Amino acid sequence: MSDQQSNLFGWDLLYTSVENDIHSNQDVLLCLVHLVLISNGFQCIGIGDSKVLDGTESKSESLPKGWNDGYAIRYVYQGRLYNLKGTSLDDAIIINLIRADERTVSMIQLNTRSVIQRTGTLMQMIPDCSAIIDVVKKQLIDKVVTSTKTKDSANQTQPETSKPTSSVGINPSRLQDPPLRNPAYPYVPNIHPLDVGGADLNPFGLNPLGVPRNPTFAGGGGMLFVPPGRGRPPDINIGIPGGSLPPGARFDPFRPPDVDRFPRRPNAPDNDEMPPPGFDDMFM
């Protein structure tokens, strides 16, 4: 006899008390499930499917009267209510165990062919009872007894808090990212004298040490023309669809830079048209 069978006491007493109510193999299997529940600390408080526990219910290890009329039995374990519901099929019985406070459900399906006879000892009636006991314990009981709320809280990872790093001899302000450009004047840099022309040589706008001297204008450059629109958001230019240029992009001009500030009159020449021949000839 296995350890599980040796720890499952009371089959003979239980079966004798309900022998006259046994009418099918499903009844025998439900008796075994009930005994496994009782052996694991459950107490029976009657039949029905009520989810309310008022604390006045009488607790017993026996099956209540009418237990196989619909297979709806109520149990208490560690002060919590559990509802067992069995559904009879042609050659099987499906058993659900519901934990009322969390609405968690476990389910097993037992084959009626595992019941060889309806009289005798447990091994004579159900030779494979050890496997059934193991299924009831692991698949029916353990899955609902362990709180799902406890599992969820245990699986949540705590966010890591970053601590400021400090090094001896390093100014903490040098470890911070350079501030953003002034949005009101996005194209007017305050260039360090040693960095004049450096944007054409280094598109990242950094000196050889990798630290920008001018944090207010840390970006690169090197294009021929800085877009017009002083005081205007970087991606808005007259005559250019909004959003067509990335913010702060440099580009070759589509029109003279002073068109936005000094709109020309209709039909008047703009500033990039060639002067007439001899316009500035002192001998004309």
- CATH names the topology of the largest domain as Protein Transport Mog1p, Chain A
What is the domain tally?
2
Tell me the CATH architecture of the largest domain. 3-Layer(aba) Sandwich
Q: Reading side by side through the largest sheet, how are the strands ordered?
A: 1-2-3-4-5
What is the general shape?
A: rod-shaped
The rounded distance between the terminal residues' Cα atoms is 127 Å
Describe the structure.
- The protein has 2 domains: 145 residues, Protein Transport Mog1p, Chain A (3-Layer(aba) Sandwich); 83 residues, no CATH class.
- Helix 3 packs across helix 5.
- Helix content is 21%, strand content 13%.
- The termini are far apart.
- By secondary structure, the chain is α+β, with helices and mostly antiparallel strands.
- The longest helix has 17 residues.
- A 5-stranded antiparallel β-sheet has the order 1-2-3-4-5, covered by helices on one side.
- About 12% of the residues have low confidence.
- Belongs to the proteasome inhibitor PI31 family.
- One of its GO terms (molecular function) is proteasome binding.
- It comes from Popillia japonica (Japanese beetle).
Name some characteristics of this structure:
Proteasome inhibitor PI31 subunit; alpha+beta; PI31-like; Protein Transport Mog1p, Chain A; 21% helix; five-stranded antiparallel beta sheet; proteasome binding
